[in-house]
Amino acid sequence: MVISPRIKGFICITAHPDGCRENVRRQMEYVEKNGRTENGPKNVLIIGASTGYGLASRIALAFGSGANTLGIMFEKNATATRTATPGYYNTAAFEEFAKEKGLYAETINGDAFSVECKEQTIRKIREDLGKVDMVIYSLAAPRRTTPDGTTYTSVLKPVGEPFTNLSWNAKDNSLTTVTLEPANEEEVAATVKVMGGEDWSDWIDALHDADVLSEHAVTVAYSYIGPELTYPIYKEGTIGMAKKNLKECSDRINEKYQDAGIRSYVSVNKAVVTQASAAIPVVPLYFMILYKVMKAKNLHEGCIEQMDRLFRQKLTGTHAEQDAEGFIRMDDWELREDVQAEVMEAWNKITETELSEIADVDGYWEDFYHMFGFKFDNVDYDRDVPLV
Ligand code: NAD
């Protein structure tokens, strides 16, 4: 099949294996250019390892500190008529590159929320690695089925009051004013169940009880705060409630495993285009303006630049650079006063200015297509690709 992009709403339902491979290769190249670090972790479990921040963490640690990596993902292989999901292709490429360099790289494709997946992971660690010294929790999921069989679905809604703001329509590049109705209590609770820290804590308990965590193991999960402009839909919305719970769970992991020397962190990352973030209303418009401002200031970072900086500078060996509340702040440049002042200035003139003048619309689309393996200038998109 000659594979071309087929966009539906905020995702692309096709993915290109050669382009996904190129995406991984470029990330690997970025990390390798920065050289090897000596004090990084050696055996790492990455939960949510196939796209976005989880994939970038895996690449940064494998090629930056020579780490063996075991990844967990929830991806689909190709069928006779459908391409695989990008995470599937990314992972195949990652494993190939890592193995070429003599690194252990294995992946479990399953539902990370399930007990079975946790048990399978523990068996694999025991057999192949003995113990892990770092656990990265980078899941972004729409739903979670808990061990008692209940399925919870997360929502992206404000809490308490409706939220009205401008939003960008990917279909025709138009701007519309959207009003988002607030979530009810049940929706807030369900979002916390899916995107909060309960499952992360369950993972750490299971790994600790099975004695597959090294002494002084480190675990890190990812969060986002963003500017006041998006507070109603992010920080103070349903997803923000889940992220608040994530930090509380992190604090509880630290208390519970203090004697075992396990350290837990939440890293607040920068806004980047991923499958998860493209789904949030209002936020993509902010991203495009932010991209423009940060690129002009030479401060722009994607997933790999963020994760490379995290593991080279902010979370290394026994060192963790934390703010007063205990967060690691990878959004330090995004939230810099001068950056946000320019973003707000642009936001306030959106309606009377041509969008491409104040927002990096092309940059957004470039990242979007790259996520699915499209629009790389060195990939042959006319090639007839065998799907299975
Ligand atoms: P993403 O959609 O690119 O990645 C999600 C990962 O989770 C994929 O590897 C996917 O396979 C895996 N996954 C989903 N459901 C699963 C399941 N049931 N079992 C196993 N694996 C499953 O998302 P992302 O944007 O990289 O988000 C990762 C984390 O980073 C999230 O916690 C998100 O809130 C956070 N974060 C994202 C941004 C951003 O701008 N994208 C900013 C800050 C923090």
Structure summary, number of beta strands = 15
Hetero ligands: nicotinamide-adenine-dinucleotide
Largest β-sheet summary: 7 strands, parallel
Helix content: 25-40%
Query: Judging from the principal axes of the Cα atoms, what is the shape?
Result: globular
Strand-helix topology:
Layout: E1 7-8, E2 11-12, H1 17-33, E3 43-47, H2 52-65, E4 68-73, H3 86-100, E5 105-109, H4 115-129, E6 132-137, E7 143-145, E8 151-153, E9 163-169, E10 174-180, H5 185-195, H6 198-209, E11 213-223, H7 238-256, E12 263-268, H8 283-296, H9 303-314, E13 315-316, E14 319-320, E15 328-329, H10 337-347, H11 355-358, H12 361-371
Parallel strand pairs: 3-4, 3-6, 4-5, 6-11, 11-12, 12-15
Antiparallel strand pairs: 1-2, 7-8, 9-10, 13-14
Helix pairs in contact: 1-2, 1-3, 2-3, 2-9, 5-7, 6-7, 8-10
The structure holds nicotinamide-adenine-dinucleotide (NAD).
Which features characterize this protein?
single chain, alpha/beta, Rossmann fold, 7-stranded parallel beta sheet, 40% helix, globular, binds nicotinamide-adenine-dinucleotide
Description of the structure:
This protein is an alpha/beta fold and 388 residues long. It has a single domain (7-371), classed as Rossmann fold (3-Layer(aba) Sandwich), CATH 3.40.50.720. It contains 12 helices and 15 strands. The strands form 5 sheets. The chain has a 7-stranded parallel β-sheet, sandwiched between helices. A two-stranded antiparallel sheet has the order 1-2. It has a two-stranded antiparallel ribbon with strand order 7-8. Strand 7 and strand 8 form a beta hairpin. Helix 6 (198-209) runs parallel beside helix 7 (238-256) and helix 8 packs across helix 10. The longest helix is centred in the middle third of the chain and has 19 residues, at 238-256. The radius of gyration is 20 Å and the shape is globular. The termini are close together. 46% of the residues are buried. The structure holds nicotinamide-adenine-dinucleotide. Residues 48-54, 72-75, 87, 111-113, 138-141, 222-224, 269, 271-272, 274-277 line the site of nicotinamide-adenine-dinucleotide.
